[in-house]
Structure formats: C-alpha cells, structure tokens
Design brief:
This protein is an alpha/beta fold and 399 residues long. The chain has 15 helices and 17 strands. The protein has 3 domains: 111 residues, 3-Layer(aba) Sandwich (Rossmann fold); 132 residues, Rossmann fold, CATH 3.40.50; 138 residues, 2-Layer Sandwich (Alpha-Beta Plaits). The longest helix has 26 residues. It is flat and about 80 Å long. The N and C termini lie far apart (56 Å). The relative contact order is 0.06.
C-alpha cells in the first residue's frame, strides 16, 4: 500500500490502521518522492493519497499514480462536491473525507474488500454495450472479475459455465427481462449463494418491489451514482462472505479444516446411494503422541494429518468424527477407493510429521464396509472392522 501525505501524524495513524489489518504501508511525504518510487514499477494493491501536497497542491499526485496504472483512494479535508465528482470521473476507487476517525475507519474494510474481490466474479447483463463497458470498468477497478451478457438468455448460459457471485442486470432487454432473469436465477440459487442487483431507467415505482419480490437483493435506478453502486455491491459481498464464514464455522472442523461430524451425516442423508463404501480411520497410539509431545504436538499431528486426508482421494468425502477418529465416504468405484485407502495407510506410515524439529512417526488403522445398507449400519460394520484391525496389531486396512 502506497501512502502519500505530508502530515506525520496522519502518516502514522493510517500506517497503524493498515498494519493492523495486515497490509504493508510504503509512505512518502511529497509528489517528487512518489514519482521516483513509481519509476521502480512497484506492485501495489492500491494507494492512499492526499489531494493537496506542498509540491502538488491541485491533486497532481493523483494523476501521476493513475497514469502509472495504479488504483487510488483520495483522503482529503476538501468536501467540494464538484471536486469529488471530477476525481471519481478520473477513475479513483473512492473519495474519503478526513473529517473524523469514523470516516477513516472505512479505509481498512474497503481495502480488505478489494483483496477479497479478487476471488469474486460479477455477471453484468445489459443489452447496451455502452452501459456494459461502463459497468465493467467500474467493477474491474475494484478487482472484481467480470463476465458480460447481452440479454437474459445469454446470462443463463453464462451461469452454467461460470461460478458467479453477483449479478447486475438491467430490466428492459430483448428475449428475457431482468425481472424474468431474476426469477429464473432464484429457482437455482438462494440469496446466500448469489447476490442480484436490478437496474432500470423506468420511472415506474412498482418496479422496485417487483424486483425485490422476485428475489433481487437490491435495486438501483439509472442513471446510478457510482459511489452508491460500490457501497451496495460491497455490502452484499460482505454479507455473502459473512454467511460463508458462518457456514464454515458450523460445518468445518476448526483444527483440521475437514468437514465435521454434523456436515458428514447431513451430507450422507442428502446424497443417498445404493452403492457406497465407508471407512473409519483411527490414529494408532494417539495417547502416546500426546504424552510424548504434549497436546500441542498432538494437535499439530491432527492438523497435518487432516491436510493429507483431504487430498488423498479422487472422489470421496473425508470428515473428522472426533478426537483422532476420521471417516471417509465414497459412492464411486469401490476398488479404486480401497486402493486409495491402502495407499494412504502406507503413505502415513512412511511420512513423519515434523514438530519442533522432531519427526513424529505414527500409523493408522482402517475399518471399511461396503454395500447398500443405511449409514448407521455401515458405520457399525466399519467400526467392527476397525476394532479387528486394532486387535490384529494395528496399521492395517480390513474390509
């Protein structure tokens, strides 16, 4: 992050904000230093620029940064509306007043949103090439990946071949209106999975509730305010991320990152199969690992083991049942899955896990069951096979 401001107090305050949020600030006090720095062709997420500098009193540093191909956020005490509009037309990311700590507190969430946007894709649907290009430029300025469609039918096809996080659609289009598109999309994806913003130049007031009742998250009239569009998009994406985080916390094991017991049973119930193979995996003599290396060492073993398990199978669902016990469910080819289980057992035996410069070696026992029985019956059968593997000396796979 590039920061350019002639106030040492402001430099220190903003630098502290950015560092606390995980960013690396690079600070300069004037235009000349900034020019020299930009000649090194740095890789920057964004820049935070003061409008008025001693050697650049009319925002010249902003033009310099934009010409160099970098994004810019302007922080200034100047609240002039015409200046604000002029800078937004130049292509800055945002214009934030230095009028209070509350305003400056908006900076780090904005920058964090830019980082997260790199993994987000927006679908712009409009039959006007000019509007499509304008929206694309605005969204890409905020690091969003953008796909475009000229009408609702093309949008549905784009949805089939791409993971889309947010749709921004005009209403008045040939073949399928934005309202109809919204209804189609909501039949496939709920609000947690896909955000939808409707756009229209219509003056009919009933269009807003129609869009919202059809499943849109938000609505904007054309012509829209650029800052308002950004705020609404970021609010929706923040909510989407928050829901995904809550879903992760509810369904993922915190230590290993694998699916947890709750998710495993829900998944099995939602995906019934007449042919499935289930394996229960237990780390041998795990208590000895805890006794020897402490609980932190044991946790490290579970964490690394979970990563190994997550990538060990071509088409199976691994989860942590609890403690040192794991389960894997496959509805694919039985022989392939059993071969992968045996390969994983051998890999575990031959792959020590390093903890505080010590190699921790351990083995696993696996009990597996296959058939069309209900999940509780297969679990019981696999558990019996696991017990047999333990009784026969451990480090075995028994079907």
């Amino acid at each position: 992050m590039l920061i350019v401001d002639d106030s040492p107090t402001f430099q220190s305050y903003v630098s502290a904000l950015l560092e606390d949020a995980g960013f690396e600030p690079i600070v300069f006090s004037n235009h000349a230093e900034t020019i020299d720095f930009l000649e090194t062709k740095p890789s920057l997420l964004c820049s935070v620029l003061d409008y008025c500098l001693p050697d650049a009193p009319r925002g010249e540093v902003i033009d310099t940064v934009l010409r160099a191909g970098h994004r810019a956020i302007v922080l200034t005490g100047n609240s002039d509306t015409n200046l604000r509009e002029e800078l937004l037309q130049k292509g800055i990311v945002d214009y934030i007043l230095k009028d209070s700590a509350v305003s400056l507190a908006f900076l780090t969430p904005l920058l964090t949103r830019l980082v997260h946007n790199m993994n987000k894709t927006a679908l712009v649907v409009d039959d006007s090439s000019a509007i499509t290009q304008y929206l694309t430029e605005l969204l890409e300025r905020f690091y969003l990946n953008v796909i475009t469609a000229s009408d609702g039918m093309a949008a549905l096809e784009a949805m089939e071949h791409n993971h889309i996080d947010i749709v921004i659609t005009d209403n008045d289009m040939p073949h399928m209106t934005g309202l109809e598109l919204t209804q189609h999309l909501r039949m496939e994806k709920n609000r947690d999975e896909l955000a939808i913003i409707g756009l229209s130049a219509s003056t009919h007031s009933e269009q807003i509730p129609q869009f919202l009742k059809a499943g849109a998250n938000d609505f904007l009239n054309k012509p829209f305010n650029q800052e308002e569009l950004y705020c609404r998009i970021h609010t929706l994406l923040d909510m989407q991320d928050a829901r995904q985080k809550l879903y992760f916390l509810a369904n993922r094991d915190e230590l290993t990152g694998l699916w947890n017991r709750r998710y495993f049973f829900n998944f099995a119930a939602d995906h019934p199969s007449n042919s499935k193979t289930l394996a229960i995996i237990d780390i041998d003599h795990f208590k000895k690992i805890n006794d020897t290396y402490g609980h932190e060492g044991g946790d490290n073993v579970l964490k690394v083991f979970g990563k190994f398990l997550a990538s060990a199978f071509s088409s199976a669902l691994p989860a942590r049942l609890g403690g040192e016990e794991f389960v894997v469910l496959s509805t694919g080819n039985k022989d392939v899955f059993l071969a992968e289980l045996e390969a994983f057992r051998v890999q575990t035996e031959n792959t020590p896990i390093n903890y505080e410069n010590q190699d921790i070696r351990f083995t696993i026992s696996i009990g597996a069951a296959s058939g069309s029985d209900q999940l509780p019956h297969l679990l019981k059968q696999a558990d019996n096979k696991l017990y047999a593997a333990k009784k026969q000396g451990r480090n075995l796979l028994i079907l």
